Amino acid sequence: MEHEKICLAHGSGGKLSQELVEQVILPAFGNPLLNELHDGASVNMAGTNVAFTTDSYVVKPLFFAGGNIGKLAVCGTVNDLAMTGAVPRYLSVGLILEEGFLMDDLRKIVESMRLAAKEANVLIVTGDTKVVNKGAADGIFINTAGIGDIISGSHISPKCVKPGCDVIVSGYIGDHATTIMAGRHELVLPATLQSDCAPLNGLVQKMLKAVPQIAALRDPTRGGVAATLNEIAEQSKTGILLQENAIPVRSEVQGVCEILGFDPLYLANEGKMLVFVDAKYTKTLLDVMHQHPYGKDACVIGKVTNESIGQVGLQTNIGGIRIVDMPLGVQIPRIC
Amino acid sequence: MPEHNNETKEMAQFLIREIDRLVTKPVRLMEVCGTHTVAIFRAGIRQLLPPQVDLVSGPGCPVCVTPDEYIDKAVAYARCEDVILTTFGDMLRVPGSTSSLGEVKATGADIRVVYSPLESLTIAAQNPHKKIIFLAVGFETTAPTAAATVLATKKQNLTNLFLLSSHKIVPPALKVLLADPAVNIDGFLLPGHVCAITGERPFDFLPETYHMPAVVAGFEPLEILRTIYRLARQIHDDQPTIENEYKRIVKPDGNPAARQILSEVYEPTDAVWRGIGMIPDSGLRMKEQYSAFDAQVVLPMVTKTIAKKTACRCGEVLRGIIKPTACQLFGKACVPEHPIGACMVSVEGSCAAWYKYGSGRYTYGT
């Protein structure tokens, strides 16, 4: 690696994150389960298929429209489990607090974690608290880990993604990152726009019940839809072609992106998922998704093809096709 | 759900057919502005155009034309204990002769990314014991905000905010390009944001002196196609003139209020452009009465810039002489993760855009 020090971009979910994992993490820890590099691992314990995942949360600001770091820490891990086709059951919570952090703020954060866990129907069963000197952390960092049991009959894996699959997004993209970004830059947003942070496991369960043939699920967090689709194209050895005019982006999000120079395809979401499913099940699946509050705006945004293997293309409104590449580094650091 | 709309596609097809009909010999059109380079790629315009119409990128990416000397100075300031450097994010990764700002930041230097120079005012007020230095780069578009920052600093009686200024103005650079026989251009897509400030008049020399078609371009896909169509018509009729395809933003006289603020603080000066060299009267320096806010006057910094020997051909790319793909480093030793030349750093740099969007006429399925 040419970098002698860690840069923010190493934590972006883009190419440099990939490089870090491939060059430092996998050589040390690599094993068949980890090498899958899925949002969570599927392990077999005492004859039961269990999904296991962990994630750390460092979002700044800690409080934002539509949520806070606590809600994010529960929803993020719940969603990672849900994306492996599991029913999330138990979470752990590790808190790293900076000396001087307001007790009131901690209470608010913990209360949102309680509410999010209740909605997601998971129990927080173990945890840890550490306090570090003032300046050694930024208020509060949270780590959560979670386990769940794999829904029987489902087989969610990028390897199941085949040409002919539709690519479905569960709703408007870019809301979370735009909200965080606007908060940081003191841009006043309309009250209609807030982070989409939400637990998706309820929706996923309904979807898998109706269509167990779903090939793959991913939540496009860091790196956004672009990074997620590039990963899937690469892992499934397929091409993906999106239709620009089908991608749901709120006009507020588009507006902020134009001011700050971002592309919504690369912005993090915290309550959205991408679904890959054989086109013959698309209608059934969309009908189910539209019944659920977190899936009511779901729509098809593209197709899996056998052209341009490993690449994501986008057909623009004027009929040209451009490549949607893997993001290099951070569009925005500390988004989750 | 977004509206599905076939009119856009039909209009695009109509314009492309007309461009094909009007242009009967190979032409090279230069988009001056880096934002256009990106917009053209994003809309997939290059591969829709008939093969006789070639688009080349010009010197309109501010980060790309900022010379090593400037980065070296910024790095030296950033290393000072009592300095907070504020900058646009793109500048962090530009390689200087010894180090980039990003590398200095990783070693603990206080460098903060801002979206407007005015954010530096708040940082200055909150850190009275620190010296805040804003890296003022950019063209006519961003220079007025930098000037407004100087005026606000004065008004708020802040004595700890300074600008390290390297602003540049576009028309003198175009004159240099046109005087170079190696640069072979048949028309210009003029930078819409710059023209929003300057108006159309500073570009009159293009048709008048150089018999060169020029159209002020907007940034929406159809605006860009209409711009190319107008250039094609001017070339076909051999009647070069200045046309404006971005009237919703660009008034013929530009923005006099912004220019007034600009000329209150700044005056023209000679400036070095990376890859091009010194161009007379192509830069802006702070007037003497505002020198108390000029980092180079108040906090003089001597740095030594080591001339680098690389095979990087940014200079030719910036002048539109070669395409990024003609550089032997492109996509091999020089990639966005590890850029060698500045054109690979900024998202609006020609090389970065070419790399990101599949090296030119990207065709899906090949």
UniProtKB/TrEMBL annotation, chain A:
<feature type="domain" description="PurM-like C-terminal">
    <location>
        <begin position="162"/>
        <end position="312"/>
    </location>
</feature>
<feature type="domain" description="PurM-like N-terminal">
    <location>
        <begin position="39"/>
        <end position="148"/>
    </location>
</feature>
<dbReference type="Pfam" id="PF02769">
    <property type="entry name" value="AIRS_C"/>
</dbReference>
<dbReference type="GO" id="GO:0051604">
    <property type="term" value="P:protein maturation"/>
</dbReference>
<dbReference type="InterPro" id="IPR036676">
    <property type="entry name" value="PurM-like_C_sf"/>
</dbReference>
<dbReference type="InterPro" id="IPR011854">
    <property type="entry name" value="HypE"/>
</dbReference>
<dbReference type="InterPro" id="IPR010918">
    <property type="entry name" value="PurM-like_C_dom"/>
</dbReference>
<dbReference type="InterPro" id="IPR016188">
    <property type="entry name" value="PurM-like_N"/>
</dbReference>
<protein>
    <submittedName>
        <fullName>Hydrogenase expression/formation protein HypE</fullName>
    </submittedName>
</protein>
<dbReference type="InterPro" id="IPR036921">
    <property type="entry name" value="PurM-like_N_sf"/>
</dbReference>
<dbReference type="Pfam" id="PF00586">
    <property type="entry name" value="AIRS"/>
</dbReference>
<comment type="similarity">
    <text>Belongs to the HypE family.</text>
</comment>
UniProtKB/TrEMBL annotation, chain B:
<keyword id="KW-0479">Metal-binding</keyword>
<dbReference type="GO" id="GO:0070025">
    <property type="term" value="F:carbon monoxide binding"/>
</dbReference>
<dbReference type="InterPro" id="IPR002780">
    <property type="entry name" value="Hyd_form_HypD"/>
</dbReference>
<protein>
    <submittedName>
        <fullName>Hydrogenase expression/formation protein HypD</fullName>
    </submittedName>
</protein>
<dbReference type="GO" id="GO:0051539">
    <property type="term" value="F:4 iron, 4 sulfur cluster binding"/>
</dbReference>
<dbReference type="InterPro" id="IPR042244">
    <property type="entry name" value="HypD_2_sf"/>
</dbReference>
<dbReference type="GO" id="GO:0051604">
    <property type="term" value="P:protein maturation"/>
</dbReference>
<dbReference type="InterPro" id="IPR042243">
    <property type="entry name" value="HypD_1"/>
</dbReference>
<dbReference type="Pfam" id="PF01924">
    <property type="entry name" value="HypD"/>
</dbReference>
<keyword id="KW-0408">Iron</keyword>
<comment type="similarity">
    <text>Belongs to the HypD family.</text>
</comment>
<dbReference type="GO" id="GO:0005506">
    <property type="term" value="F:iron ion binding"/>
</dbReference>
